[in-house]
Specification:
It contains 24 helices and 12 strands. It is mainly α. It folds into 3 domains: 45-50 and 293-460, no CATH class; 66-210, no CATH class; 235-283 and 475-502. The chain is globular, with a radius of gyration of 28 Å. The N and C termini lie far apart (93 Å).
């Protein structure tokens, strides 16, 4: 039954009044908060997890070995004084400031500058440092955070049992108080001052970043690398120490190369690690081979997605148009024809540097990175044992096993059609992952993404990042260098007598 016109009019007035009173939920403003997220395709997890298992105690940001001892000293003092959490963090910041200032004046850094150098160095030029100011978090302090630079180190320090796994800053079971206090003598007393002159800091020259031969440096080197059985040795210790010895052996075989180049050559692209009597017993060598090769595929997905996002120009673009633009980078040929021009990935059972050869070519990003991905799919059938396990991981979407499956499906079909399909899948995956990570912040939905889809159209909020995932080898090498196990050799490295002793 139809309503009378008067009833319809009254209904419209009521609806208009309601619209004036309610404009969406009262507890939240309309719309979304979109922010740049990390890992938009979520392809990094396996490599990151494997790296953590193979070299626990070092990360891509733990670049200065002696900070392990500085933070251990803070934990010892916090326990001795029964400091609460806030007081302990104040002590951490003050110790870091004085240590960094003394290290800057010593000027013998092996790898990198002390943390906070950019804010401490200008103050040193005035003749003294204001510890109270530099130890206060914020724009004028040496760090913006309450814990100074201890946060990135804490997980590694707990893994090494330097710190207790408890939430409070307290020493762990392997914290060597005698070695730490002897090596860092004078640091606690100096940190209690409000200001320190440059001349007073020069008296602390032993607080340099080069810890070779110092009591705390020798303790740390034993902790990281000593091959002899020690009390409480567990699986993670064995993995780390095996990786250290693999790296030292790699440097011995490839003097003058960077840490990563020597390690990759020794472990992944030769039988060196399996033939050297000092390392052939280590199962970690095969695991590292798989991880190093998997890293190429991870980097390829990241670079490819970065390039795809860069093609979104203006306010928005249709997904189908974006896919077509990407497909046009490829020749009108089958996948089999495309694959036939790729360099071989193995010879006599040994991996070849196919991905490096591809990236040295002049091919534009989409061609080169898709070629790298297809090479990874080829490796899925070539590796065996622990190398294959570490390379493949669980069979997940975008993993090498998945790529191998796609190759079987698309091999005799047009390459351009494959790219159209792939772009569509990557867009859907990026959106699914972004909304899976979404959170409510101050009553607004926060979505970590640089690209979002709306009715088949894509909008880009900012450029996407790319590049390879770090394997911690350069950071581990830097730690060994600052502890005296390796020394400079031209643009690369060679073993020191202490490093040769460890092998």
């Amino acid at each position: 039954m139809l309503k009378k016109s008067s009833e319809v009019g009254a209904g419209r007035v009521a609806l208009m009044n309601a619209e004036q009173l309610v404009r969406g939920p009262a507890w939240t403003p309309p719309g979304l908060d979109l922010a740049a997220g990390r890992f938009p395709l979520a392809v990094e997890a396996h490599v990151i997890a494997m790296t953590g298992r193979l070299v626990p105690g070092a990360t891509t940001v733990t670049t200065n070995a002696r900070y392990y001892a500085v933070h251990a000293l803070a934990a010892l003092e916090a326990e001795a004084r029964d400091l609460d959490d806030g007081e302990a963090l104040v002590l951490v910041r003050r110790l870091e400031v004085v240590f960094a200032a003394a290290a800057l004046l010593a000027d013998d850094a092996v790898i990198s500058s002390p943390h906070g150098a950019g804010r401490i160095a200008p103050m040193l030029k005035t003749g003294e440092i204001d510890i109270d100011v530099l130890a206060t978090p914020g724009a004028k302090g040496h760090s913006d955070t309450n814990g100074g630079f201890s946060g990135p180190y804490r997980g590694s320090e707990i893994a090494l049992a330097i710190l207790s796994p408890d939430s409070r800053l307290r020493p762990g079971e392997r914290c060597n108080e005698q070695a730490i206090r002897s090596g860092l003598r004078g640091l606690v007393d100096a940190s209690s001052a409000s200001t320190l002159t440059v001349s007073a800091l020069r008296e602390l020259a032993h607080l340099s970043l080069n810890a070779a031969g110092t009591p705390d440096g020798d303790w740390l080197l034993d902790l990281f690398a000593k091959p002899d059985p020690v009390e409480g040795l567990d699986k993670s210790d064995s993995a780390r120490r095996a990786t250290v010895r693999l790296l030292l052996a790699a440097i011995d075989h490839h003097e003058g190369l960077s840490f990563s180049d020597a390690f990759h050559s020794f472990v992944a692209f030769s039988d060196g690690a399996l033939q050297d009597p000092r390392t052939r017993e280590f199962a970690e060598a095969q695991a590292w081979r798989g991880v190093i090769l998997r890293r190429y595929s991870v980097g390829a997905w990241r670079r490819l997605w970065q390039w795809i996002v860069s093609q979104i120009e203006g306010r928005e673009v249709a997904i189908r148009d974006l896919a077509s633009v990407c497909a046009e980078s490829f020749q009108p040929e089958t996948m089999a024809a495309f694959r036939s021009r790729l360099p071989p990935t193995a010879e006599n059972g040994l991996p070849l540097r196919a991905e490096d050869e591809i990236r040295r070519s002049i091919a534009p990003v989409p061609l080169a990175e898709v070629a790298v991905l297809l090479s990874g799919g080829q490796r899925a059938a070539e590796l065996s044992g622990q190398a294959a396990d570490a390379f493949l991981g669980r069979h997940t979407v975008l993993g090498p096993g998945w790529v191998a499956g796609q190759t079987a499906i698309w091999n005799d079909r047009p390459m351009r059609d494959f790219i159209v399909e792939l772009v569509g899948q990557l867009v859907k995956r990026s959106q699914r992952i972004a909304y899976k990570k979404a959170k409510l912040k101050d009553g607004r939905l926060w979505v970590p993404t640089r690209v979002y889809e709306r009715d088949g159209m894509l909008v880009r909020t900012s450029a996407e990042g790319g590049g390879d995932v770090g394997l911690r080898i350069d950071q581990l090498g830097g730690i060994l260098a600052s502890l005296g196990a390796v020394s400079r050799e031209g643009d690369g490295w060679s073993l020191s007598p202490k490093g040769r002793e460890l092998l």
